[in-house]
Design goal:
Elements (H helix, E strand, L loop, with lengths): L1 H9 L17 H16 E10 L15 E4 L5 H7 L5 H9 L3 E7 L2 E9 L3 E3 L4 E3 L5 E9 L8 H15 L4 E7 L3 H9 L3 E9 L6 E6 L8 E2 L4 H14 L1
Parallel strand pairs: 7-8
Antiparallel strand pairs: 1-8, 1-9, 2-3, 3-4, 4-7, 5-6, 6-11, 9-10
Bound molecules: coenzyme A (COA).
Length: about 240
Amino acid sequence: MAESKLARTARIRPSGRLRFSDGARSGTKGLLRVAGAKVLTTFYRRMLFMSYPLDGAEIPVYNANVSVQFDQLKPDELDSYLRFRPDSDRREMAQRLSAGHRCFVCWHEGEIVEACWSATSDIYVGYVRRYLRVPDGDVYSFDSYADPRFRGRGVYMARNSYQARLNRAEGLKRSIALVAYENYAAWLILSRSGLKTLGAYHYVRLPGSGIYWNTPAPGQVLPPLTAKSSAAAAQRGRVFQARQA
Ligand SMILES: CC(C)(COP(=O)(O)OP(=O)(O)OC[C@H]1O[C@@H](n2cnc3c(N)ncnc32)[C@H](O)[C@@H]1OP(=O)(O)O)[C@@H](O)C(=O)NCCC(=O)NCCS
């Protein structure tokens, strides 16, 4: 019974027929896929809900093939973060930190070369214009990025593993992520990292608030997407952060 449920869950996967560009050079078919994804997502957006159990799971340890040190970004290190991601907005990054969200970073020779944000309280998901209510015991990871000069050297996998082991030691039960249905490359990377797809959120972009619904895999319940952030959840995130300090 449990096995057949798992088999059905494993079948949830994006088709990849329409997909966002992953930066690789592509022919006419590839360009049509990207153009189709752009047109479709102007009106209709989907995000897949993915999860990785932290409790009771054997978390593999990966080592990067370049020397890196893992840490959590401190408010006085924002300059380094902005050198690493010059397109990001200082105020937004500072707000993330003061809201209790954390940024796990990889340092190499005094510079950040890879980073990933995490949240244990409500988090705004701009793509669907809603807050994700992160359930108690879950940690939501988002906005991971590696310096293009350091890609393909296992830095992301190594930091991911470090972060998951640390989150488990903190008592967190599940790591969760959202990925756009058309972001096929990111879905592949998250799946390779061991995350399972447990359902999808749907958003029809209409003037006003739009139409929302979700389609969980059998036996799954997806956390709500809400129009407003709950102050209680935000406070929970800050308390969690203070406990870790
Ligand atoms: C995604 C990203 C962080 C990976 O960083 P990285 O340090 O190069 O990753 P790693 O070297 O640890 O490789 C991670 C795995 O993802 C795979 N991978 C990386 N890019 C990929 C792509 N475009 N398509 C498919 N798989 C890919 C690697 O092959 C590797 O899998 P493997 O261990 O089975 O070989 C980096 O490519 C990036 O910053 N991309 C732009 C931002 C982005 O897409 N973020 C979303 C990530 S879910």
